[in-house]
């Protein structure tokens, strides 16, 4: 299955002054590296999300795995709750569904279900850094498996 050596999310958020309030919007980019199907990949993506309620974020994400064979494309629907227990430190927990499309007759596309947890640190009035863990569960034609890896995100509010 897929083994991700390192993935770093660099997110630039376009949000209102109150970063985690209902109605705030985010757009971001993903830059990372991974290994799967015996190939090394560069991972590039884009995401857009919206706070459907205070501290509750949902959105749509696309990631493409480039430079290896077969070509991999992923489309995700995440939901994340940011726990408002402290002004500077905000734990978060969430889940997601992802459809992974494999561009090859040798491999089948598959579904991924996952969870994420971590903490966001408000670094100033308009920026934050997040550190967490993602755990994925694969539903494939060859059986079920799982994989976990760290996530790092930085955000700026405008």
Instruction: Please count the helical segments.
Output: 0
- The helical percent reads under 10%
- Work out the count of structural domains: 1
Q: What is the arithmetic mean of pLDDT?
A: 85
Q: Regions with pLDDT < 50 over 5+ consecutive residues?
A: 4-17
User: What is the gyration radius calculated from CA atoms?
Assistant: 16 Å
Kindly state the number of beta strands: 9
Q: What features would you describe in this structure?
A:
There is one protein chain. This protein has 158 residues and is mainly β. The chain has a single domain (3-156), classed as Porin (Beta Barrel). Helix content is 0%, strand content 72%. Strands 1-2-3-4-5-6-7-8-9 form a nine-stranded antiparallel beta sheet, with no helix packed on it. Strand 8 and strand 9 form a beta hairpin. Mean pLDDT is 85; it is low at 4-17.
């Amino acid at each position: 299955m897929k083994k991700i050596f390192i993935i770093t999310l660099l997110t630039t958020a376009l949000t209102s002054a109150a970063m985690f309030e209902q109605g705030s919007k985010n757009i971001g980019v993903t830059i990372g590296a991974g290994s799967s199907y015996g190939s090394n990949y560069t991972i590039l993506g884009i995401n857009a999300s919206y706070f459907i309620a205070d501290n509750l974020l949902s959105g749509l994400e696309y990631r493409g795995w480039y430079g290896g064979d077969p070509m991999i494309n992923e489309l995700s629907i995440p939901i994340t709750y940011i726990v408002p227990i402290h002004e500077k430190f905000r734990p978060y927990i969430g889940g997601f569904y992802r459809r992974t499309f494999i561009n090859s007759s040798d491999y089948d596309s598959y579904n991924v279900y996952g969870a994420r947890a971590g903490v966001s640190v408000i670094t100033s009035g308009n920026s934050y850094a997040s550190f967490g863990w993602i755990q994925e569960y694969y539903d494939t034609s060859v059986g079920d498996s799982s994989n976990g890896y760290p996530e790092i995100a930085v955000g700026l509010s405008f």
